[in-house]
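User: Can you predict the 3D structure for this chain?
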Amino acid sequence: MAKKKTKAKHQAKNQTDQPTLSLCMIVKDEAGFLRGCLASVKGLVDEIVVGDTGSLDETKEVASGAGAVVVDVPWQGDFAAARNAVLESATCDWVLVLDCDEVLAKK
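Assistant: Here is the predicted structure, written as structure tokens:
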């Protein structure tokens, strides 16, 4: 039986036994929407992983400026493959998936 691959847990922000949360997103040319989305999760997630599928605008710069790990994901016409590539880079206990045009309510 193969041993499950384990990742180092995201401990930089989490010095307690509290579960950690990764935000994972797939993006392409979403700089305008991405700013609001990332601002809405500031302070709520332990890490942000953004999978860029070939942006030509400032999407990557916006993401990295917000502290995100940006992963280049070659688009193969398959959302599941792109999503799985981003999820593979997440290191936290739990994952929140949002689209760029979504924001978390302040409540």
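The radius of gyration is 14 Å. DSSP finds three helices and four strands in the chain.
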